[in-house]
Amino acid sequence: MDQSAILARLTEIVRTLFDEYDGPVDASLNAKAVKQWDSLANVQFMVLVEQAFKVRFTVSEITGLKNVGELMQVIQKKLGH
After folding, report:
1. How many Cβ atoms from other residues are within 10 Å of residue 79's Cβ?
2. Is the pLDDT assigned to residue 59 strictly greater than 80?
3. In angstroms, how far is CA 16 from the centroid of its own chain?
4. Which of 17, 31, 56, 76 could form a disulfide linkage to 37, CB 3.0–4.6 angstroms apart?
5. Which of 45, 49, 43, 48 is nearest to 75 (CA)?
6. Three-class SS state of 12
7. What is the DSSP string of 39-76?
8. What is the pLDDT of residue 62?
9. pLDDT tens-digit profile of 22-44?
10. What local confidence, expressed as pLDDT, does residue 34 receive?
11. How confident is the model at residue 5, as a pLDDT?
12. Are 44 and 18 spatial neighbours (Cβ–Cβ below 8 Å)?
């Protein structure tokens, strides 16, 4: 799965979970940019990402992420690309 396909799927998740957010979803997006994105929403987001890509993240992977771009890199690595 290439970066554009990963971003497209992440965009769907962001739009579903954060329905009030209508800004751009790109590699630079982070929780600070989305009003609804608090710690509980972050857990929900990561669960949805794990389900969508059929991967699992460690706590250190999750806490080390700074933005969607870094998440995309971790997903791509886990998918073996």
Report:
1. 12
2. yes
3. 12
4. 31
5. 49
6. helix
7. HHHHHHHHHHHHHHHT----HHHHHH--SHHHHHHHHH
8. 96
9. 999 999 999 999 999 999 999 99
10. 98
11. 98
12. no
Q: What class is the 3-78 domain?
A: mainly alpha
Six token digits for residue 9: 């799927």
Sorted by where each begins, the domain ranges of the chain are 3-78
The whole-chain average pLDDT of the chain stands at 97
Residue type present at position 20: E
Amino acid at 65: L
What whole-number distance in Å separates Cα of residue 7 and Cα of residue 29? Answer: 11
Please name the amino acid found at residue 45: F
0.90 cut: is pTM over it?
Answer: yes
pLDDT at position 15 is 97
Q: Residues 6 or more apart from 57 whose CB is under 8 A from it?
A: 46, 49, 50, 74
Count how many residues are written for the chain: 81
CB 1, CB 41: distance < 8 Å: no
- The amino acid at residue 18 is F
